[in-house]
Amino acid sequence: MSGTNARNKVAGWLMRKNLLVQQEEQIGIFIWCWPDGPSNIQTQFEQLEK
Fold first, then answer.
1. How many angstroms separate the CA atoms of 3 and 45, rounded?
2. C-alpha dihedral over 28, 34, 40, 47, to 10 degrees?
3. CA pair distance 37, 32, nearest whole angstrom
4. Cα separation, 19 vs 10, whole angstroms
5. pTM for this one?
6. Residue 42 CB coordination number (10 Å)
7. Can you list the alpha helix ranges (DSSP code H) found in the chain?
8. Alpha carbon of 37 to those of 12, 28, 43, 50: distances in Å?
9. φ, ψ for residue 45 (rounded to 5)?
């Protein structure tokens, strides 16, 4: 089903003016993109962990 992945789900929630607490708690940390970040995924994980 198109449009049901996690990114689309969270993006839809973030577009709302009022977010339910249950939805907010499910987001945690959401990195949409990291344009100036490291290209290596392992380095990205290590930096995010810090």
1. 26
2. -50
3. 12
4. 11
5. 0.45
6. 8
7. 6-15, 21-27, 41-49
8. 25, 20, 9, 14
9. -60, -45
26 DSSP assignment? H
Tokens for 42, please give them: 């392992």
The rounded Cα 15 to chain-centroid distance in angstroms is 13
pLDDT digits (tens, 9 = 90+) for 1-43: 555 788 888 888 888 888 888 888 888 776 778 888 898 989 9
Q: Which residue has the tokens 């949409």?
A: 32
Q: What burial letters (b/e) apply to 14-38, b meaning 16+ CB within 10 Å?
A: eeeeeeeeeeeeeeeeeeeeeeeee
Place of tokens 């290209």: 39
